[in-house]
Structures are given as C-alpha cells and as structure tokens.
Description:
The chain is α/β, with parallel strands linked by helices. The chain has one domain (5-301): Ureohydrolase domain (Arginase, Chain A, 3-Layer(aba) Sandwich). Helices cover 36% and strands 16% of the residues. It has 10 helices and 8 strands. Strands 2-1-3-8-7-4-5-6 form an 8-stranded parallel beta sheet, sandwiched between helices. α3 (69-89) runs parallel beside α4 (103-116), α8 runs parallel beside α9 (252-265) and α9 packs parallel to α10 (285-297). The chain is globular and about 55 Å long. The mean pLDDT is 96.
Amino acid sequence: MQHLKCALVGAPVQSGASRPGCLMGPDAYRTAGLADTLRALGHDVTDLGNVSATVDDITPPAGSAAHDLGETVGWSRALEAAAYDAAQRVDLPIFLGGDHSLSIGTVPGIARHSADLGRPQFVLWLDAHPDIHTVHSTSSGNLHGTPVAYFMGLEGFEGLYPPLKTPVPAANICMMGIRSVDPAENAALAAHNVTVHDMRAIDEHGIAGPLRAFLERVSVAKGALHVSLDVDFLEPAIAPAVGTTVPGGATFREAHLVMEMLCDSGLVTSLDLVELNPFLDERGRTAQLMVDLTASLLGRKVLDRPTRSF
C-alpha cells in the first residue's frame, strides 16, 4: 500500500462507561509500540499527544439515566475539533481511546472534513453493540451507547449534545460483530435501515462477503471511510481488556481478515481504537493485539507478522 501520513490523537475519556480504566488506553497503545510499528511499515507517524476537555454545565433531562453528561459533552466538543484539525493535516488520523463515547466527537469531526472535500462519509462500526441509544432511551446511563444515534442525526440530543454539522446517513453505516442489542436499539436499527451483520450472520455466511459488498458501495460513491474498532468486537478470550465483554466475538483470523481487506481496499481515511481498559488486561495482550490489527490495516501481511506467546 502507499505510505501514509498518520497522526495519533489520544482521547483519554472514560466518562461514557461505567468501569474506570479507559483513560489509560492511549498510553497503553503507545507503550505497545503503535507508532514504531507503523513507522516500520514505512508510514510517517506523528503523535499529537492527548486531547484535553472541559466539563460542560449540562443537567440530564428528567427521567434520563445518563451519567457524566457534562463531561462527555465536553469531550465531544474537544474531539470534534481535534478530529477536524487532524484530518486536514494528515492522510489517516488514528484516535486512541478511551471509551466509545469518543466517537460522539471523532465521527462528526471527520464527517465535517469529508463534506469540505465533497466526499460522502461512510462508517464501519466493528462492535458487539450498535450504540444507537439516545440520552433518553439508555437504561444504563452509559453514554458510550449513544454515538451512532447522535452522528446519524436522530432526535433526542437537542440542547444536550453539540449541534451536528454533518450527519452520517444510515445507509452509509455498516455494523459488524453485533451480538448485544436491547429492545430500544433493535427498534432504532429497524426504523432507520442500518446495515447490520451480527455474529449469527457472520457464522452462517462468513465475514468476507458482507464486508466486500460494503466496501464496493464506498468505492462506487467515492466515499471516505471511518473505521471504529471496539475491543469488544473481538472474542474476549483473545482480548480481555474491555469492560463490556460479550462472548462469541470475532476470532483472531476474522479480525485480521477484516483489517487486511480494508488495507487492500485503500478506502480507510480515519480510525478509532476504543474501549481498551489496560486495568483489565493480561500482560498487555489486548493492547498488542489491537496494535497488530492496526498494522494489518496499514499493510502488514500474514508472512510479516511476528509470532507471539503469552
């Protein structure tokens, strides 16, 4: 693949989750050698450090279970600006999380930049959860369950989250690995016709065919593709460092195949690495796996991959 200018942007946010530890994620990726790994593949990598945020003065609406709303919204504002800025400076911004609420900021910032270029924004959501709650529908109150609903432009965020400049159409979103969906999310997915390939479908039909079909749509539209990779997309046995483990996730080979196909497509323009909780890891194995998956996305081939033991 071509050599890219990449930027690492740390997003040490954990206000959207219920278990502390995700704020250590960005430094765990650095410790696992993400920058040096990508440089060894020939890419130009700049570490822009960690984004910082202020807490907005926002009170959750009556009846909402949402917690840490002001902090999460503060992060979303800071990360939207950081994503927009990074996208103008490099070929591939990589956002190091941090819980998945960081996508409340990163995806809108990236989509705003794509709109400036006249390119439609597409999103590949690799996750056990669809994260399509609103502030009103979440029963857990964990706002890492709301980014997709927000950046699609659904109702339920007015006066709470920042006004959305560039919504991502539901038709431009593909979810893979989904296996934990509650009734409110199920209704939202059905109402808005989001493309979802859950683990049952992947078990029956494999992962390559559905992904190939989505990438073809992105290519035909000359779209920009944002990939949001959640640790819980993966089988917990190989990636234990996440506070939302759901059995039955993607295997080691399925995950690498996804990344290799994304590399071959040449369509990826930005990347989230989210929900890494180093406090729950085993000798850094999850952080290292996420680094290895990023390397596959950026050109490492099977025969190049070092053998590791844990």
